[in-house]
From TrEMBL:
Domain 3-hydroxyacyl-CoA dehydrogenase C-terminal, first and last residues per copy: 473-567, 603-688
Ranges for domain 3-hydroxyacyl-CoA dehydrogenase NAD binding: 292-468
InterPro entries from the UniProt entry: 3-OHacyl-CoA_DH_NAD-bd, 3HC_DH_C, 6-PGluconate_DH-like_C_sf, ClpP/crotonase-like_dom_sf, Enoyl-CoA_hyd/isom_CS, Enoyl-CoA_hydra/iso, NAD(P)-bd_dom_sf
Protein name: Enoyl-CoA hydratase/isomerase family protein
Keywords annotated in UniProt: Fatty acid metabolism, Isomerase, Lipid degradation, Lipid metabolism, Lyase, Multifunctional enzyme, NAD, Oxidoreductase, Peroxisome
């Protein structure tokens, strides 16, 4: 097995080359190899040391295989200090990505050169921690406090040209990292350039760190790691010495390491990587995908078409009339113009996508050669059956037929075709060219290669794809309908929509459920309620009509200017709609309910317990294969705070026995709604967690 760090002598220069594919992660062998190589270079009388990475990148960060395991010496902070303290001239040559510990190693060297395509960054906040090997102390000294705070609190990747401008690197040059690094180090030695340890540079001037801390905490909706990183950068300015600053950084790092938020974010990190790995699709090749059809050019259909065009697919947009087709094209052009303005597309690319890659059609025959067709028409079973009957008649053999339904039974839709094996659900989230989640809904007869094609499309579109089984609402909307019902029950019992939204936004949700309903359109929930009532509600289920009355008055949320909130002053300046509380009070009076007070803690606990209980039913029934599938769905589609890991990770950290006890206590008030999930009862009885199920599924 090759050494993780190669050692090469070129005259009076030693080259330490990382060889730890695929991304030269800073695992134990790499750290040890760098330390041993540096010792040897100094012992052999070298004058300079070049550190670079072979393969596709410099050190791209920590080795995720070591997460959760006791670290082995040399630890990264000590290694960085050792590199910086070397009496030799140490240069790093960067290519690919120098992220996290990778950038911290580079900052510990005395000079830094990079290829133009290189990117640097300190993304640790996304894992619930902060740079813990001197990054918060060294970066402000080379880039200044403002730039360092921006990079560290956002975790964003910075291109080489910007990194040069900020002072993070010293030179950008074309070429192979070994060659440009060697040339730069030789030039520095020939010039007699001094060692330049960043830790010996003067501390930057302090700024108003209290104000910045408060702003970062507010922007992160309660996520601690970016705000705590502000305090670490503050130490770079205010600590009595560089060593004292490093000590403070380490203290703050360990605080975060021991936090629930770090545990939640690490869970989310690994869940992202596991969610698309399905044993049943191993070795199954997807069907070819080049041209797709989209039926329906409303907001959803236009968003799907936009995402497909941006991924390099050609799209036929089918509408019922020439006017509707042109309107759909206008929506697609509007979506793409955003990419044009942001510099993601050139004018030529925009023109090619809208005139060559996009075809408008009003006849189903135009879909005859499509590899995959997605319908995004009105959410009505009869309408969708008509569409699939037509697709069955015109689409070529082997074409994948997909429905973007949010709730409806894919098996029923597939049954009207002569090829149910080619049918699946592809549930996008609006706006489809922005939202990352895609539920790939596998019907009873969906062929494995059709399922694989759904996941291949999701990957091509840059989506996070989750496998879902067939039920009303699949994973996300099924769970949503229950926790949203829980919120409705709390309103009947005495809470207000505004209290509930405030409590859940403080918990970390991007928006509370009533603000979300206004954004999506209250007519959507109204249609679902009417459908469920038509199918027949269980007589034990609590129901209410106050939201229907809002809709009957034409108040559908943001699109009509009023819903639960009044948007007269704009979408962001939401204020409570004064018509809502009287409707709620009338409903309570009609049902004979005496309202009571709710604390924010109780609101959150009930809302989350309802979510977890239904999620446990979804996993127990196999609609979601693993708890992590639920967590990823809620994180990417429903605004769940990422630092809490997802509802089932949150439940594990809260304690399943205590949660089940609460559910059983509330069942005394409403036995129908609070029916404990059998899986939750089983896990508690066996002393296990949802995460145990994730590990078993690996």
């Amino acid at each position: 097995m090759p050494e993780a760090i190669g050692y090469e002598r070129v005259g009076d220069i030693v080259i330490l080359a990382a060889d730890n594919p695929p991304v030269n992660a800073l695992g134990h062998a790499v750290r040890q190899g760098l330390a041993v190589g540096l010792d040897r270079a100094e012992a052999e009388g070298a004058r300079g040391v070049l550190i670079y990475g072979t393969g596709r990148t410099f050190f791209a960060g920590a080795d995720i295989r070591e997460f959760g395991k006791p670290p082995k010496e040399p630890h990264l902070p000590e290694l960085c200090n050792r590199i910086e303290a070397s009496p030799l001239l140490v240069v790093s040559a960067l290519h690919g990505t120098a992220l996290g510990g990778g950038l911290e190693v580079a900052l510990a060297t005395h000079y830094r050169i990079a290829v133009p395509q290189a990117k640097v960054g300190l993304p640790e906040v996304h894992l619930g921690i902060l740079p813990g090997a001197g990054g918060t102390q060294r970066l402000p000294r080379v880039a200044g406090v403002e730039a360092a705070l921006d990079m560290i609190t956002t975790g964003r990747h910075v291109r080489a040209d910007e990194a040069l401008r900020l002072g993070v690197i010293d030179r950008v040059a074309e070429g192979e990292p070994r060659e440009i690094g060697l040339s730069y180090l030789r030039e520095l030695l020939d010039e007699g350039a001094p060692r330049r340890p960043v830790g010996e540079m003067p501390a930057p001037a302090p700024v108003d760190f209290d104000a910045i801390y408060a702003a970062v905490l507010r922007k992160g909706r309660g996520q601690l790691s970016p705000a705590t990183a502000v305090r670490a950068v503050q130490a770079a300015c205010e600590a009595e010495s560089f060593a004292a600053g490093l000590k403070r950084e380490r203290e703050l790092f360990m605080e975060l390491m021991n936090s629930d938020q770090r545990e939640g974010l690490i869970h989310a990190f690994f869940a992202d990587r596991a969610v698309g790995k399905l044993p049943e699709l191993e070795g199954v090749a997807p069907r070819p995908l080049a041209a797709i059809g989209v039926i329906g050019g409303g907001t959803m259909g236009a968003g799907i078409a936009t995402a497909a065009l941006l991924s390099g697919l050609s799209v036929t947009m089918l509408e019922m009339t020439p006017e509707a087709a042109e309107a759909a094209k206008g929506r697609i052009e509007g979506n793409l113009s955003g990419a044009l303005k942001r510099g993601k597309l050139t004018a030529q690319q925009f023109d090619n996508l809208t005139t060559k890659a996009l075809t408008l059609a009003i006849d189903y025959d135009a879909l005859a050669d499509a590899d995959l067709v997605i319908e995004a028409v009105f959410e009505d079973m009869e309408v969708k059956k008509q569409v699939f009957t037509k697709l069955d008649a015109v689409c070529k053999p082997g074409a994948v037929l997909a429905s973007n339904t949010s709730y409806l039974d894919i098996n029923q839709i597939a049954a009207v075709t002569s090829r149910p094996q080619d049918v699946l659900g592809l549930h996008f989230f609006s706006p489809a060219h922005v939202m990352k989640l895609l539920e790939v809904v596998i019907a009873d007869q969906t062929a494995p290669d059709v399922a694989a094609t759904g996941f291949a499309l999701g990957k091509r579109l840059g989506k996070v794809s989750v496998r879902a089984g067939v039920c009303d609402g699949f994973i996300g909307n099924r769970i949503l309908s229950v926790y949203r019902t829980c919120a409705d029950h709390m309103i009947l019992d005495g809470a207000s929509p505004y209290q509930i939204d405030e409590a859940l936004e403080e918990f970390g949700f991007a928006m509370g459920p009533f603000a979300v309903a206004d954004l999506a359109g209250l007519d959507i929930g109204w249609a679902v309620r009417k459908r469920k009532r038509a199918e027949g509600l269980d007589p034990r289920a609590r129901d209410s009509a106050y939201a229907d009355k809002l809709c009957e008055a034409g108040h559908f949320g943001q699109k009509t200017g009023k819903g639960y909130y009044d948007y007269a002053a704009g979408a962001k300046a939401r204020v409570p709609n004064p018509e809502v509380l009287p409707l709620i009070e009338a409903e309570r009076a009609q049902q004979g309910i005496t309202p009571r007070a709710f604390s924010k803690d109780e609101i959150v606990r009930r809302y989350m317990a309802a979510m977890v209980n239904e999620a446990a039913k979804v996993v127990g029934e196999g609609i979601a294969r693993r708890p992590l599938d639920v967590d990823v769905t809620l994180l990417y589609g429903y605004g769940f705070p990422r630092y809490r890991g997802g509802p089932l990770k949150w439940a594990d950290m809260q304690g399943l026995p205590e949660l089940l006890a609460d559910i059983k206590r509330w069942a005394a008030e409403d036995a129908y709604f609070w029916q404990p999930a059998p899986l939750l009862e089983q896990l508690v009885a066996e002393g296990r967690t949802f995460d145990d199920l994730n590990k078993e599924a690996v």
